[in-house]
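Supplementary Note 2. Why include the ligand at all?

Several targets in our set were suspected to adopt different conformations when bound, so apo predictions alone were not considered sufficient. For every target with a known small-molecule partner we therefore ran a joint prediction. The input for magnesium ion is given below.
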Amino acid sequence: MSKTLLEIKNLHASIGGKEILKGVNLTINEGEVHAIMGPNGAGKSTLSAVLTGNPAYEVTSGEVYLKEQNLLEMEPEVRARAGVFLSFQYPVEIPGVSMTNFMRAALNAKREYEGKEPISPKEFLTLMREKKKLLELPDKLNNRSVNEGFSGGEKKKNEIFQMAMLEPCLSILDETDSGLDIDALRIVAEGVNRLKTPQNASIVITHYQRLLDYIVPDFVHVLADGKIVRTGDKTLALELEEKGYEGLNL
Amino acid sequence: MVNDQIVNIKSGETFERVFLNEPSVNLRIIQEAGSHVKIHVLNMPSKQAEGSNLQTISNKIFITQTGENCSTEIYALAYLHNDESVTTETHVAHAVGGGTSNQLLKFILADHARGHFIGDLKIEQDAQKTEAHQTNRNLLLSEDAEMRTQPQLEIYADDVKATHGASTGQLDESALFYMQQRGIDKQKARQLLVNAFMKDVLNTISDETLREKLINSLDSDL
Ligand SMILES: Nc1ncnc2c1ncn2[C@@H]1O[C@H](COP(=O)(O)OP(=O)(O)OP(=O)(O)O)[C@@H](O)[C@H]1O
Ligand SMILES: [Mg+2]
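The joint prediction is reproduced in token form.
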């Protein structure tokens, strides 16, 4: 039996006084890939925001545990250090903060949390080079400001690059496939697959079956109107592709 | 010392000064034809002089272009904490044509700090083909900090390019959250954004040694 990594119990959350998540239940074990699909506005990004502690959202009830720790009581940065990673649907541009400074700060924060020494400059550069290669990102990335002026596809690749650097135990990929050309999709998906271990797990939010051809899910969930209304195996995604949400008779 | 004096910059000469943490700058410059002036006024007192009783900073810069084809650059950066306050006045006058002036002034105000910018830009009737830009950007790091901006443009020539812009805002919450999501604590994330905000002023310093020293001192705080 594999161990439970994440447990979401009856989660309700709202933004601006409007209830978006209306009782989400989900258990994720180590080594699993869970796809979440669902109509626009269903609350998929809200779920990722709430799991990562985005202060714009209010959790009104429910519980979330990461490796038996109460996730909802942890600061966003502590959740990240504990291994929760979000590949943002809309990655943020941070002018004036170089990828190098940003990545080093992130990596060392995690190492400190794990009781490790800060990474040496040489090791850091080697690691950056290695992970950039995995995503086929250019060398000049280091000196550029975080996401500033990156194309849509480059931003998504940069998210997975950061995931590769930080090696999270739970990664949430929020529409990482949108905006990627065919080659980039393959590179990103291969990157994600290579980062997979028996100990970590991913939540893959997507609208398209196409990504799931590469990143094969163990479970597919349909989130509609703030609730998981259907769970199945990978064939559910195919069924959805064929019939649409209306054809599901939810 | 050039402070508190009237300085004449002769034709074709270049005058550059960086005023670092002076309690007061009072500069009056007359530019002759084809001269270049580049001034930096940097006020980051609480970083350099912890516990100093330097509370009220006053900067006054008067520059008049009296000959053609002059260039003037003014950069100001103030990063204040506690009850510190700064008033920075720039008075740039283009008396004759073909000149340029560029001003970039940034104020970062934490705690109860107060900032006041008075930007007086005058383009006389004879100063055709002048190009003048004035930009004032401010960051308020607390609800108790306060910034006042008073740009004043007087333009009497018709064939000129003149722009001015002023904005006051807070740190970008979505950028802060993005950094926190990568494990960077909020305090450090804030400092990274503040440093980024300051860097483009510091990057305009010509003296490489001083420039690197100031920029490195920002990063070393992290
Ligand atoms: N600040 C806000 N105030 C009120 N409603 C909001 C706010 N932000 C988001 N919402 C609403 O929350 C709902 C859920 O949004 P969310 O981004 O979670 O959807 P999603 O499932 O990720 O959709 P998509 O597939 O389009 O990315 C939407 O109806 C959206 O309009
Ligand atoms: Mg979304």
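Chain B has two domains: 5-170, 171-222. The longest strand of chain B covers residues 56-65. Comparable summaries for the other entries are listed in the accompanying table.
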